[in-house]
Structure formats: structure tokens, C-alpha cells
Amino acid sequence: MGFKCGIVGLPNVGKSTLFNALTQTAAAQAANYPFCTIEPNVGEVAVPDPRLFKLAEVAGSKQVIPTRISFVDIAGLVRGASKGEGLGNKFLANIREVDAIVHVLRCFEDSDVSHIEGGIDPLRDAEIVETELMLADLESLERRLVGLEKKANSGEKEAKLQVALMKKATALLNDGKPARLAEISKAERRDWQALNLLTTRPVLYVCNVEEAAAASGNAASARVAEKAKAEGAGIVIISAAIEAELAQLDYDQRTEFLGALGLKEPGLERLIHEGYRLLDLITFFTAGAKQARAWTVRRDTVAPRAAGTIHTDFEKGFIRAETIQIDDYLACNGENGAKDAGKMRLEGKDYIVADGDVMHFRFAT
């Protein structure tokens, strides 16, 4: 199961520089002109998790395989994108393919790097992008409502449900609010997600600041922080320029460089973890002599479905899951010690996987 975060923003805010550092590749061309990223670039990155390496050491695993999350660098958006301006149609189509939005906002001054709107104002930039997404959603809903309302009026039950959800979204959008602010019941969630609205995707704001502000942010990022808090959105402060330099250094050099800047860890690690949290993901583990591996599932995933992330046969023939919490696994020096201490549990089809479970699936072929 793959999870994608789309990196979006106006041109020249540092999206591609950030993407290059994130994936430690030069796949995305970073240049000082709009639309330098013509096609979406996808990079898979490992989610840093110290627990995995401790697990591998105790299990005596020869190979360590972390869980991964994908980041998609998407072409810069401009005003009028919802009407096809710039690369608007391509931008909007690519956004529909991601699970969450990482919105890069420029929070630094630099006379050598132009800004398409003529000045630095991250709240204005955020509003431009959000407005275009809302306009695109409104157009999509209005287009679909015409046919659905006819079906609903004829008594079709499913159409009535869809129309009610669409009108709930339309009311918010017409009020200048993203659809993700709608109150949706658990029973409605599946149909709500099926609407595939751009503004239902969770948002993480990334404040791209100058080097001197990397540790504590600046006045511009503080304004974004207030906005994020009001919306319940995530926020990470990063200097894309610093992250690009860090990507070229080895571990010792990186540690020394971070220390000199007063930083405890690369901003990209915080971004990866925030992206993971934004998608409401958890990690479970498998471990043996051959490999220790981390796996990604959404929170509230039942054991058979988690087994299916390893192999579809595991889900189809699921019998039970032998489960040990990783803290117990490490404290008991492995699987046998955990068994002897009574820390291994046998879980069935209704078990909801918890973050940090070390699991061995039993299945029928």
C-alpha cells in the first residue's frame, strides 16, 4: 500500500529544492523560473525509526528494510489554475492522485530569487492555492450535481445520499472554506472520500525560511503557525537551502553542520514524520534471521488487512497473528524471551493493529 504526499506551492517557493534534498536526487530541476517542474516527480523516502534497528539487532536480522512514504513534486500553481491558467489542469489532475498536501510557503527574502506575486506574503500565497483548489472542487460538484439530483428526485437512495454530501461540501466551499472542515459521520466517510475533492485532503504547511531562522522560525513563519493552529493543520519550519547542503554530507559531517546551526535533527526528518502523522499512519514490524522490516498501515487497520500489505495470500488465508509489542520484544531479548514472559498474544481477525506491534502471521494456503 503506497501513501503519497503532494508537494505544492506557487513557483519559486523552494518546492523542487526541498524535493531534491528529500529524495537526495537531482530528479526535479530546481531553477529560478516558473514551471521548471513540468511533470510530477515521485521520490520514495524511508521513514526514520530507531526501533527498527534495535529490533534487527535483537533478532539477528541480516537485512533491515524501513517503511517508506512517497513525496510527489508537482508543477507550480498560479492564479487562475482552476480555469486552466499556467499548468493548472496538470496541477489539479496530479493533486487528485495524492493522499495529503504538503504546502510549501516562502518565508524568506532573496533579491536573487523572484516571486511570481512580487513580494513575500505566505498567507496570501496559501490563500491563492487554497482558493484555486476550492474553485476546482466547486466546479466539479456543480457539474456532477445536475445529473445526480435528477436521480435523487426519482427516489434513488444512493443518489440522495451523494447529493446530501455534495451540498454539504458546496455550502462550505461557497463560504470560502475547504471541504475538509465538514463534519462527516463514520457511516458517511466512505461516500465522502469517494467524492475525491481536492480540499478534503489533509494539509501540512512547510515554511521555507532563511538559514538563520532554521532553528526557531521568523515573523513570517509565525503567521503561518497561527493559521495552521486555527485550521488544525500541521506545520514544519525548514530551510530548503540547508537541507540541500545536508543531503550532500555524510553522517559525521551532517551532525557537525547541524550542531553549528543549533539544530538537533534535519528538518526533512520532521517533515517525513509529520507527513506520516498527517496521513494517520502507524508502523508494525516483522523480524527474523533474514530481515527486520517495518510496514505501513492506516490507524484502525485490522490484522488480516495488515497481513495483506505483506502478501495478498496472507489476508485471504488469515488464521491468526502472533503479536508482541516492540518494547516487550526488546526488553525480553527477542521472540523466545517474550514468549517465556507471557508477552506474546494470539490475535484474531478483529484485532486492530497497534503502532509498534511485532507480528508473525499464520495463514492457510
What do these coordinates show?
The strands form three sheets. This protein has a six-stranded mixed β-sheet, with helices on both faces. A three-stranded mixed β-sheet has the order 3-9-8, with helices on both faces. Strands 11-10-12 form a three-stranded antiparallel β-sheet. By secondary structure, the chain is an alpha/beta fold. The chain is flat. The two termini are 22 Å apart. The protein is built from 14 helices and twelve strands. It has helices at 15-23, 50-59, 88-95, 122-153, 157-174, 189-194, 219-231, 240-246, 251-261, 267-278, 303-310, 312-316, 326-331, 335-340; strands at residues 4-8, 41-46, 63-65, 68-73, 100-106, 203-208, 234-238, 281-287, 291-298, 318-325, 345-347, 357-363.
How are strands sequenced across the largest beta sheet?
Answer: 2-4-1-5-6-7
Envelope shape: flat
Tally of alpha and pi helices: 14
Identify low-pLDDT runs: 25-38
Name the assembly state: single chain
Radius of gyration over alpha carbons?
A: 23 Å
Task: Summarize this entry quickly.
This protein has helices at 15-23, 50-59, 88-95, 122-153, 157-174, 189-194, 219-231, 240-246, 251-261, 267-278, 303-310, 312-316, 326-331, 335-340, and strands at residues 4-8, 41-46, 63-65, 68-73, 100-106, 203-208, 234-238, 281-287, 291-298, 318-325, 345-347, 357-363.
Please write out the topology.
Layout: E1 4-8, H1 15-23, E2 41-46, H2 50-59, E3 63-65, E4 68-73, H3 88-95, E5 100-106, H4 122-153, H5 157-174, H6 189-194, E6 203-208, H7 219-231, E7 234-238, H8 240-246, H9 251-261, H10 267-278, E8 281-287, E9 291-298, H11 303-310, H12 312-316, E10 318-325, H13 326-331, H14 335-340, E11 345-347, E12 357-363
Parallel strand pairs: 1-4, 1-5, 3-9, 5-6, 6-7
Antiparallel strand pairs: 2-4, 8-9, 10-11, 10-12
Helix pairs in contact: 1-8, 4-5
